[in-house]
Structure formats: structure tokens, C-alpha cells
Amino acid sequence: MLWIKAFHIIAVTCWFAGIFYLPRLFVYHAMADDDTSKERFIIMERKLLRGIMNPSAIAAVLFGSILMWMNWATYQGQGWLHAKLTLVILLIAYHLMCRKIWLNFSRGENRHSHVYYRWFNEFPVLLLVGIVILVVVRPF
Ligand code: HEM
Fold first, then answer.
1. Which of 138, 127, 132, 135 is nearest to 19 (CA)?
2. Into how many domains does the chain fold?
3. Which of 13, 39, 77, 130 is the most buried (most CB within 10 A)?
């Protein structure tokens, strides 16, 4: 169980590294006005999304689900886990939004300014704080 939890936390850390970095790239990408820079950002964003964020998201959910399954009798009635999974669903939605934004950039169809992406970049901080407090403190 502890090995699974260790890999769960490693995967979650890698996932958040990408979740915090990709929108930052969107900020500078939205400010770029020469084609060379725009092409370079598209490649960097694609590598981050496909090389780090997607695999670590899958690993975090897989190891978390194994942990849940191994102890379901205990977890099923615990409010903190239900609240945590609700925030995790928001995190997965945020991840998919990032993928859609990258697709728009790669087609030259970006719709937002760098100011929008600066605010967009802050949202996962709230999710991280909420998830970690729920799983460690278990307030309910
Ligand atoms: C579907 C996704 C997820 C599931 C099913 C899941 C489930 C679990 C379960 C069952 C545990 C073991 C709790 C225990 O010690 O009894 C756990 C631990 C943990 N999870 Fe997740 N988790 C998921 C996603 C995440 C995410 C996105 C984060 C991001 C911060 C996260 C952070 C943690 C941490 C820090 C622990 C260790 C808590 C401790 O040892 O006290 N999990 N998770």
C-alpha cells in the first residue's frame, strides 16, 4: 500500500508541475508576435502535454484508484475523499481545457489575451491547496 501511495504522490507532483507550467507558456505564447517564437511555443507545449502531463495524470488517477479500491470499505463513507474526488474532477476538466487551448494555438485560433492566461494560471493553486488539505487533514 505504501509503495502505491508513494507512486501516487510522485505522479501527482509531476502532473502539477505540468499544470502550473503549461498556462505560463500560454501567457508568453499569447504575447509572441513572430512566427518563429509561436512555432517554438507550440512544440514546447505539445511536449509538456503529451510527455509529462498526460502520462502523469493517468498514473496519478490509476494509483489513486488502486489505493481507493484496496481500502474501499473504509473510504466509501468518508466525506473528505468524496470532496477530494470532486476537486480532482475539476482538475481533470482544467487539464482538458489546457489541451483545447493548445489545439487552438496550434491552429492559429487563440482567442484569449496574456492577461486571461495569467488568471487562468492561478486556478490550479486553489485545487492543490484544497486537495492536499482534504487528504491530509480530513476535516470531515
Ligand atoms: C482520481 C484521482 C485520485 C484518487 C482516486 C485518489 C485517492 C487517494 C487515496 C485513496 C489515498 C490514500 C489515503 C490514505 O492514506 O488513506 C490518496 C493519498 C493521497 N493523495 Fe490522492 N487521489 C487522487 C488524486 C490525487 C490528486 C490529484 C492529488 C493532488 C494533490 C492527490 C494527493 C494525494 C496525497 C498528497 C495523498 C497522501 C495523503 C497522506 O499520506 O496522508 N491525490 N489518494
1. 127
2. 1
3. 130
Query: Does residue 113 contact residue 23 with C-beta atoms inside 8 Å?
Result: no
Closest CA to ligand 1's atom 23 = 64
pTM for the whole thing?
A: 0.93
The whole-angstrom separation of Cα 13 and Cα 16 is 5
Distance of CA 70 to the CA centre of its chain: 25
Distance CA 50, CA 131 (A): 24
Residue range 55-90, pLDDT digits in tens: 999 999 999 999 999 999 999 989 999 999 999 999
Nearest CA to ligand 1 atom 21: 64
Contact 87, 127 (CB under 8 A): yes
Structural domain containing residue 84 = 2-137
Which of 92, 95, 133, 135 has most ligand 1 atoms within 8 Å of its beta carbon, as the pocket-test mutant?
135
SS (H, E, C) 117-139: HHHHCCHHHHHHHHHHHHHHHCC
Contact 113 CB / ligand 1 (< 6 Å) = no
Ligand 1 centroid distance, CA of 72 (Å): 13
